[in-house]
TrEMBL record:
Entry GO MF terms: alpha-D-xyloside xylohydrolase
Ranges where the Glycosyl hydrolase family 31 C-terminal domain occurs: 586-667
Designated name of the protein: Alpha-D-xyloside xylohydrolase
NCBIfam families, alphabetized: PRK10658.1 (NF007940)
Glycoside hydrolase family 31 N-terminal domain mapped to chain residues: 56-213
Protein origin, superkingdom: Bacteria
Organism from which the protein derives: Paenibacillus silagei
Family: Belongs to the glycosyl hydrolase 31 family.
Keywords: Glycosidase, Hydrolase
Annotated coiled-coil segments of the chain: none
Main EC class the enzyme belongs to: hydrolase
Amino acid sequence: MKFTDGLWLVRDGITINGAVQNYVVEKTEEGLTAITQTTPITGRSATLNSTLLTVKFHSPLPGVVGVKIIHNDGVIPRGPSFELTEGTGDHVKIEETEAQTVLISGGLRVVINKGTHWSVDFYRGDERITGSGYKSMAYITDQNGNTFMREELDLGVGEFVYGLGERFTAFVKNGQVVDLWNKDGGTSSEQAYKNVPFYVTSKGYGVFVNQPELVSYEIASEKVKKAQFSVAGESLEYFVIEGPTIKEVITKYTSLTGKPALPPAWTFGLWLTTSFTTDYDEATVNSFVEGMAERDLPLHVFHFDCFWMREYQWTDFQWDSRVFPDPVGMLKRLHDKGLKICVWINSYIGQRSPLFEEGRKNGYLLKKANGDVYQTDLWQAGMGLVDFTNPAACEWYAGYLRDLVDMGVDSFKTDFGERIPTDVVYFDGSDPYKMHNYYTQLYNKVVFEVLEEKLGKNEAAVFARSATAGGQQFPVHWGGDCYADYESMAESLRGGLSLGLSGFGFWSHDIGGFENTAPAHVFKRWLAFGLLSSHSRLHGSTSYRVPWAYDDEAVDVTRFFTKLKCSLMPYLYDVAGQAHEQGWASMRAMVMEFPEDPTCEVLDRQYMLGDSLLVAPIFQENGEVKYYLPAGRWTHLLSGETVQGGSWRKEKHDFFSLPLFVRPNTLLAVGSEDSRPDYDFADGVKFGLYSLEDGKSAAATVRDIHGAPELKVEAVRSGSTVMVTAEGSGKAFTLAVKDLGAIASVEGAEQVDETTVSVGAGEKSVTFTITLK
């Protein structure tokens, strides 16, 4: 939201009371409280008829400092609020001189100037990373009596801003005006399903605005050297989070707002759906499932979209008996074929649903101020919305979900959650303006916790569209409604990378696009991208997404990349474990892995799948692609070709290939199974040791099906000698050296051929040495 008219003027009707001078800084149990004047204090008379801002500093975690700016502190707090980790503050140190008061938290130092010129500066060691200067903190009023709180943080020369949720606009947010307000806007606009008030910059720090309501950002837009954010009301709280790397920033941010749960291994396989408005019954479903099996296409999850329920009755959680007369038997038959089952739901209750009267009678639906149920015809005729601030409504809704799980449903696609009105009254008195974005958090939490309760820890997964800060705790999320073209494929990737830099670990998208039907060449290129994403789903709107509906080659491409993904599961499930433990996205923007490479700061058409695989999807019909390889010797995973990085490359690929490179100094674990994502990853695992440089090491962890580390292997090179240590499972494995020349000899293990070593089963602690020719 813009308040000024250029650099010198203020917009008509706007009054800005900005912090100009420090009055006093006081130590408190939580940290520090500063009182700042919005007009210079020239004498006693200047203290009359004046505006003060109270600025509170505290630190819940090392390297994380909260700043709360308050004008009037008598406002009754109304929820909701983000659920944050509450630290003790024992790590905080405070230092004071005549000129400054300093709060130190981990590697972050906050300096408050005591002089006549107000400023707050944030330091990493001796490096100033950002700050709030003269008049940047401000209390603002407009001609209608509306009030706003604003902050402006400095941006340095060449500093780029990323994140703010799943945004389909330009990957680098500099120059953008971003209003965080969840909307169902597709992937081709500035609107977003997943708005997250957190950004991270190329300088290695992040800023989380602890406000669930609309936060309006001006990122190097209203003032080109400032990242500005504002909210309506009388207070504003934000946290500065120091890295010093982007990965460390995200680890600390997710320590504050919640780590992603670990999805079960089966969710990483290929999902196939009925699509949205297509006609289908059990015979149709069976034709899809059998068609996949007949064509040797591994399939792991089948999803029933909206019309598993009768039209006009969404959501009633009842199978449409006209087309699914035996749902329990059908689900058992599908389970017997090795499939997991997902069904579509949302939190809206159509008037024709039997649940509507239950919800109305018991007060489970959102109400208007006069006590009427809030209803709309947008989506389902006369629908109401479940009020998840009512514990009884949550239990009511959860009860129907439990019945479906007992019936054989393994997962729920939690659609919608964005079109939440503000002219309503919540059961617990929550502020409807704050609830607009936060509603999805309560919705997905109820569904996720039912699955966790019924199926167990690390066995729950939803397929969610909407989210806000903290939503990463309830994976998986998908990118929403995209068109079936290359442009939407690229914008989907931008959205996924932005979401990954907002603390979300797992992300998917509709392979081939949702709206319309893609030409075969788009579908086949999207297959490679989709099956090299954390989660992979074939889904559309008005047409089926079975590969043979496109052409015969699409079948072969589907088979090729599905089997490739299954074989990579030992590696991918360790990447998933990192997302769960550290908060790092499975699909990572290049700047996240290569923060010191300036070329990587703006790349948004390629990504790192985990820390070791570089993927550059192809967005052109002719198969041409331009991509960048950072420095080092990279190896193409499919062809074995080695390439020296540090430059751009332009290539042409067929449908069975794309730039898919293994990073230098990588020990890559590949599984023995290529038809399923859920198997014993350590049994017969094969390690590839890629481009290990002298003096460097490479390590890999293989986890069990529940995510616990089962086998850890490390290789260290010194000259022509590579020492390998393995701890864990005691299961047999092989190790092949890549791009290192031939093996001259091996001590402590069995040499199979010139490049491969075998370790037999039995010993849980193994050390052996490879000598290279």
